[in-house]
Design brief:
heterodimer, A: 243 residues, mainly alpha, 82% helix, B: Rossmann fold, Heat Shock Protein 90, 2 domains, 6-stranded mixed sheet, 12 helices, 15 strands
């Protein structure tokens, strides 16, 4: 028993403590978090812009955006990454992490524009019309009728996209960037012991996933809390029967 | 009366080659309750959708309360505030509760404080009988309830006129009455309304003016009594009396009498005329056609018009012909046996001219 404990202890030491290898993992974790966060933020903006153009009146712009997003969706992420690093920006002295974020943004942006587009199309045009005939301006119809429904309808797939983006960032290891996945690989290659670092890496990815899921749920909860406000106000109205 | 609330001048609208509104000019006074009736696809909905520029007219003017509409965003928002609209398919905001649906526009457009908007909303929901369901989501409501909530939402903007676009057409028969009752209640308060509807009895009782739309315009208008009891024009009569019409016309040599008789038989069967009635009508037509095809020259024209009133069972036939002049039955070459047959089957026979042709008017059968 103690022998087994000793093995684990040794393994932990050599994988994490020796040469401060845990720093490797922490830095990788932070880099993954950073890439995912920034990518997703930019991709959401790009997706919204793409979606707006696809719903717009300018035919040529619509066609171009559709073509470009189809291209991004059809090319494997790794190939897209290779194109960015080795073809488009090969002569430039640009940070590879930055290039990777741009490439991931393109990919995720194309998907998010699809998510938003589908959610928008699911809104019945009559509701938009009704909003306009009630005297709401275009902006207010967008703010109070369209946006809440796009969020409501698009949120589940949007969440999935975040997880997908998170996982795709591990591809940067290909360019010797030490993200979470590659950090664990580097450690493994030195210690010839894959167990500990892989387990830690897996747990880290699961953690990020759980965290983001929690975050989304918080946003959702706030919405429900806001709805609750109405109910409390409502009860103060005299003569209101409870349904 | 002063200036009309809405004045429409020479409104034209077409979709591609399909002209929906040819030339509509009409005035709507404050307090008017106007029922717009007419067959499907006659432009009723397009007409009222043009009134608040949901459809952009090709030409013509619409003046609402002294303001001529153009499509400048801010101005149309202001006019739409005065004009409520109730839709065939309700169009409640599906992500909001009934109450939130009602208060959305008042709080964000009229800037009424939320608490006040809510108490006003409850008064309106009470009016339409929806107060107990104020916190239901639209998908938890029946069609009739949705429509009543939509009416409350529309009233919350304190409109001066409400446009109803077939408010009961998407409802089950059992729910139509509850919605009509609410509209009736509303109209009694003096709300100016334009109601597109297929509910004839309702249109008749609720309105003070009726527009019958056909041929891309207001084909006939008047008080409900005038339009429903004594329609002046042919298509109005056909529509009001629910006449089923069979009509063919053209040069005689282009008409195949046998085919025509067969088509008339099909028409009779379609509207479930008895075998005897069908037999009588087709025989009369056959006798006359035989005479016409044998004696008229090739350029002579003929018109056959049969109408059947589904509610009274009344049947009429009009035969127009450019040869011979005068009563066709009294023509010397008209077979006496045929003549006796035609006269035997018809209870009323008269002659006259219509659309430039000699006509024989028969009824009975």
């Amino acid at each position: 028993m103690s022998e087994w404990m000793q093995t684990i202890k040794d393994s932990l030491y050599i994988n994490l403590v020796y040469e401060d290898r845990y720093m490797f993992l922490i830095k990788g974790f932070l880099l993954t978090l950073y890439m995912t966060g920034l990518t997703f933020l930019l991709a959401t903006i790009l997706g919204a812009v793409f979606c707006r153009i696809r719903l717009g009146k300018i035919r040529t712009a619509r066609k171009i955006v559709e073509l470009v997003s189809t291209l991004f969706i059809r090319l494997p992420t790794l190939v897209l990454l290779l194109i960015f690093v080795y073809l488009l920006f090969s002569g430039w002295n640009v940070d590879t992490v930055f290039l990777a974020i741009i490439a991931f943004t393109m990919k995720a942006g194309a998907y998010i524009s699809d998510i938003l587009f589908t959610a928008y199309r699911a809104i019945r045009s009559g509701e938009i019309e009704a909003g306009r005939t009630l005297g709401l301006s275009r902006w207010k119809v967008f703010r109070y009728v369209i946006l809440p429904q796009v969020v409501q309808k698009g949120l589940p797939t949007y969440k999935n996209q975040l997880i997908i983006t998170l996982q795709e960032t591990s591809l940067v290891g290909f360019f010797a960037i030490n993200d979470l996945t590659r950090a664990s690989q580097v450690i493994t290659s030195r210690t010839m012991d894959p167990y500990i670092s892989l387990i830690i890496t897996s747990v880290a990815y699961l953690l990020i996933g759980a965290l983001s899921s929690l975050l989304f749920r918080l946003v959702d909860r706030q919405k429900h809390l806001k709805a609750g406000e109405d109910y409390s106000l409502e009860k103060s109205i005299p003569g209101k029967k409870k349904a | 009366m002063g200036k009309p609330l809405i004045a429409v001048n020479h409104l034209k609208k077409s979709y591609g080659n399909n002209v929906v509104l040819r030339d509509v000019s009409v005035e709507i006074e404050r307090g008017d309750v106007i029922a717009v009736i007419g067959p499907s696809g006659c432009g009723k909905s397009t007409f009222i959708r043009c009134l608040n520029l949901l459809e952009e007219p090709d030409s013509g003017q619409i003046v609402v309360d002294g303001v001529q509409l153009n499509n400048h965003g801010s101005q149309i928002d202001g006019v739409r505030r005065k004009m409520g609209m109730v839709y065939q398919d309700f169009n409640l905001f599906s992500h909001l509760t009934v109450l939130e649906n009602v208060i959305l526009a008042p709080t964000h457009v009229l800037k009424i404080p939320r608490a006040q908007a809510i108490s006003e909303a409850f008064a309106l929901l009470q009016l339409v009988g929806m107060a107990p369901r104020a916190d239901f989501m639209p998908n938890q409501l029946s069609g009739g309830q949705k429509q009543r909530a939509a009416i409350a939402r529309c009233l919350a903007m304190r409109p001066e006129i409400i446009l109803f676009d077939e408010p009961t057409s998407a409802l089950d028969p059992t729910m139509i009455d509850e919605v009509l009752a609410v509209i009736r209640k509303l109209v009694k308060t003096g709300m100016t309304s334009v109601i597109v509807t297929h509910e004839m009895a309702f249109a008749r009782h609720v309105s003070n003016r009726v527009f019958f739309m056909e041929e891309g315009g207001i084909y006939e208008q008047g008080t409900p009594e005038e339009v429903f009891d004594n329609p002046q024009r042919e298509k109005t009569r056909i529509f009001i009396n629910k006449l089923k019409v069979f009509e063919r016309s053209g040069a005689i040599h282009l008409l195949d009498p046998f085919e025509l008789v067969q088509e008339l038989t099909d028409y009779c069967n379609k509207y479930e005329l008895s075998r005897r009635e069908t037999n009588n009508i087709t025989l009369v037509l056959e006798e006359i056609l035989v005479f016409l095809t044998h004696h008229a020259s090739v350029d002579d024209r003929v018109r056959i018009f049969v109408s059947y009133n589904e509610s009274t069972g009344e049947k009429k036939m009009e035969i127009g012909y450019s040869f011979p002049s005068g009563n066709l039955l009294e023509h010397p070459d008209f077979d006496p046996l045929s003549r006796r047959l035609v006269e035997g089957f018809s209870t009323g026979i008269s002659v006259g001219t219509k659309e430039g042709l000699e006509h024989l008017f028969l009824e009975g059968f």
